[in-house]
Amino acid sequence: MKNILFSFALCLAAVTGSWAQHDHSQHKEQGSQSTTPVFKDAAVGKAYALYIQLKDVLVASKQDEAKKISGELQKSLLGISRGKAAAKEAGTIAYATTLADQRKAFSVLSTEMLSLIKTNTLTSGELYLEYCPMANNNEGAYWLSNEKEIKNPYFGESMLKCGVVKDTIQ
After folding, report:
1. In a domain, 17, yes or no
2. FRET pair for 99, CA 20 to 30 Å: which of 58, 70, 82, 107?
3. Residue 28 forms part of a structural domain
4. Is the pLDDT score of 170 beyond 80?
Protein backbone atom coordinates (compact mmCIF):
# COMPACT_ATOMS: atom_id res chain seq x y z
CA MET A 1 0.00 0.00 0.00
CA LYS A 2 2.86 2.41 0.83
CA ASN A 3 4.42 1.72 -2.58
CA ILE A 4 1.14 2.52 -4.35
CA LEU A 5 0.73 5.80 -2.45
CA PHE A 6 4.36 6.70 -3.09
CA SER A 7 3.96 5.99 -6.84
CA PHE A 8 0.78 8.05 -6.93
CA ALA A 9 2.54 10.96 -5.22
CA LEU A 10 5.42 10.79 -7.72
CA CYS A 11 3.00 10.79 -10.67
CA LEU A 12 1.11 13.74 -9.21
CA ALA A 13 4.37 15.66 -8.70
CA ALA A 14 5.46 14.93 -12.27
CA VAL A 15 2.16 16.16 -13.73
CA THR A 16 2.16 19.28 -11.57
CA GLY A 17 5.80 19.97 -12.50
CA SER A 18 5.05 19.68 -16.19
CA TRP A 19 2.31 22.30 -15.83
CA ALA A 20 4.71 24.64 -14.03
CA GLN A 21 7.36 24.16 -16.73
CA HIS A 22 4.97 24.84 -19.62
CA ASP A 23 6.88 26.27 -22.58
CA HIS A 24 5.42 29.70 -23.32
CA SER A 25 7.69 30.17 -26.31
CA GLN A 26 5.10 28.43 -28.47
CA HIS A 27 2.72 31.34 -27.85
CA LYS A 28 4.68 33.88 -29.89
CA GLU A 29 2.89 36.96 -31.12
CA GLN A 30 2.22 37.10 -34.82
CA GLY A 31 5.05 38.84 -36.60
CA SER A 32 7.33 38.47 -33.57
CA GLN A 33 10.86 37.61 -34.55
CA SER A 34 14.38 38.12 -33.33
CA THR A 35 16.01 41.31 -34.52
CA THR A 36 19.64 42.23 -34.43
CA PRO A 37 19.98 45.75 -33.10
CA VAL A 38 22.37 48.13 -34.86
CA PHE A 39 24.05 50.91 -32.89
CA LYS A 40 25.34 54.24 -34.18
CA ASP A 41 28.63 53.51 -32.40
CA ALA A 42 30.03 50.36 -34.04
CA ALA A 43 32.21 49.62 -30.98
CA VAL A 44 29.10 49.49 -28.78
CA GLY A 45 27.47 47.20 -31.36
CA LYS A 46 30.47 44.84 -31.25
CA ALA A 47 30.45 44.80 -27.44
CA TYR A 48 26.72 44.16 -27.37
CA ALA A 49 27.09 41.25 -29.84
CA LEU A 50 29.75 39.71 -27.57
CA TYR A 51 27.48 40.25 -24.56
CA ILE A 52 24.71 38.31 -26.36
CA GLN A 53 27.17 35.49 -27.12
CA LEU A 54 28.11 35.43 -23.43
CA LYS A 55 24.45 35.33 -22.41
CA ASP A 56 23.86 32.41 -24.77
CA VAL A 57 26.75 30.33 -23.41
CA LEU A 58 25.56 30.99 -19.86
CA VAL A 59 22.11 29.77 -20.90
CA ALA A 60 23.87 26.62 -22.16
CA SER A 61 25.92 26.41 -18.90
CA LYS A 62 29.25 26.41 -20.78
CA GLN A 63 31.70 27.80 -18.23
CA ASP A 64 34.85 27.57 -20.38
CA GLU A 65 33.22 29.29 -23.34
CA ALA A 66 31.91 31.99 -21.00
CA LYS A 67 35.50 32.62 -19.84
CA LYS A 68 36.73 33.00 -23.43
CA ILE A 69 33.91 35.26 -24.61
CA SER A 70 33.98 37.44 -21.50
CA GLY A 71 37.70 38.00 -22.07
CA GLU A 72 36.94 39.18 -25.61
CA LEU A 73 34.08 41.32 -24.29
CA GLN A 74 36.38 42.90 -21.70
CA LYS A 75 38.87 43.93 -24.43
CA SER A 76 36.05 45.31 -26.55
CA LEU A 77 34.58 47.33 -23.67
CA LEU A 78 37.98 48.83 -22.75
CA GLY A 79 37.90 50.55 -26.17
CA ILE A 80 34.67 52.38 -25.29
CA SER A 81 34.90 55.55 -23.21
CA ARG A 82 31.93 54.65 -20.98
CA GLY A 83 32.66 50.91 -20.97
CA LYS A 84 35.17 50.67 -18.12
CA ALA A 85 32.73 49.49 -15.42
CA ALA A 86 31.27 46.85 -17.75
CA ALA A 87 34.81 45.78 -18.72
CA LYS A 88 35.63 45.20 -15.05
CA GLU A 89 32.62 42.86 -14.70
CA ALA A 90 33.48 41.03 -17.92
CA GLY A 91 36.93 40.44 -16.42
CA THR A 92 35.34 39.07 -13.26
CA ILE A 93 33.48 36.52 -15.39
CA ALA A 94 36.65 35.62 -17.30
CA TYR A 95 38.47 34.79 -14.06
CA ALA A 96 35.58 33.21 -12.14
CA THR A 97 36.24 29.65 -11.04
CA THR A 98 32.61 28.47 -11.02
CA LEU A 99 29.59 28.85 -13.24
CA ALA A 100 27.66 30.23 -10.25
CA ASP A 101 30.26 33.01 -9.83
CA GLN A 102 30.10 33.77 -13.56
CA ARG A 103 26.33 34.09 -13.38
CA LYS A 104 26.50 36.34 -10.34
CA ALA A 105 28.97 38.68 -12.11
CA PHE A 106 26.78 38.53 -15.23
CA SER A 107 23.97 40.25 -13.33
CA VAL A 108 26.24 43.22 -12.56
CA LEU A 109 27.59 43.17 -16.13
CA SER A 110 24.01 43.28 -17.44
CA THR A 111 23.26 46.39 -15.38
CA GLU A 112 26.41 48.06 -16.71
CA MET A 113 25.59 47.04 -20.29
CA LEU A 114 22.09 48.47 -19.95
CA SER A 115 23.60 51.77 -18.82
CA LEU A 116 26.00 51.73 -21.79
CA ILE A 117 23.20 50.86 -24.23
CA LYS A 118 20.97 53.67 -22.97
CA THR A 119 23.72 56.25 -23.56
CA ASN A 120 24.08 55.18 -27.20
CA THR A 121 21.82 55.48 -30.21
CA LEU A 122 20.12 52.42 -31.62
CA THR A 123 19.79 53.03 -35.37
CA SER A 124 17.69 49.95 -36.15
CA GLY A 125 16.21 46.90 -34.51
CA GLU A 126 15.19 46.48 -30.91
CA LEU A 127 16.33 44.64 -27.83
CA TYR A 128 14.64 43.46 -24.68
CA LEU A 129 15.32 43.95 -21.02
CA GLU A 130 14.40 40.71 -19.28
CA TYR A 131 14.16 39.88 -15.59
CA CYS A 132 14.24 36.79 -13.39
CA PRO A 133 12.91 37.34 -9.87
CA MET A 134 14.60 34.16 -8.58
CA ALA A 135 18.18 34.94 -9.68
CA ASN A 136 20.78 35.90 -7.07
CA ASN A 137 19.08 34.05 -4.22
CA ASN A 138 15.69 35.60 -5.00
CA GLU A 139 17.07 39.15 -5.20
CA GLY A 140 16.34 39.13 -8.93
CA ALA A 141 18.50 40.04 -11.92
CA TYR A 142 18.15 41.55 -15.38
CA TRP A 143 19.70 40.70 -18.73
CA LEU A 144 19.49 41.96 -22.31
CA SER A 145 18.27 39.88 -25.24
CA ASN A 146 17.58 40.17 -28.96
CA GLU A 147 14.35 38.20 -28.59
CA LYS A 148 11.24 38.23 -26.42
CA GLU A 149 11.47 34.51 -25.75
CA ILE A 150 12.91 33.98 -22.28
CA LYS A 151 16.13 31.98 -22.12
CA ASN A 152 17.41 32.46 -18.60
CA PRO A 153 21.21 32.81 -18.30
CA TYR A 154 21.08 32.55 -14.49
CA PHE A 155 19.66 29.03 -14.30
CA GLY A 156 20.21 27.51 -17.74
CA GLU A 157 18.22 24.35 -18.44
CA SER A 158 17.02 23.96 -14.85
CA MET A 159 14.74 27.02 -15.19
CA LEU A 160 15.17 28.08 -18.80
CA LYS A 161 11.85 29.92 -19.12
CA CYS A 162 11.90 31.67 -15.74
CA GLY A 163 11.58 35.39 -16.33
CA VAL A 164 9.62 38.17 -17.98
CA VAL A 165 10.24 40.93 -20.51
CA LYS A 166 10.37 44.21 -18.57
CA ASP A 167 11.07 46.64 -21.41
CA THR A 168 11.63 46.95 -25.14
CA ILE A 169 14.46 49.28 -26.17
CA GLN A 170 14.24 50.78 -29.67
Report:
1. no
2. 82
3. no
4. yes
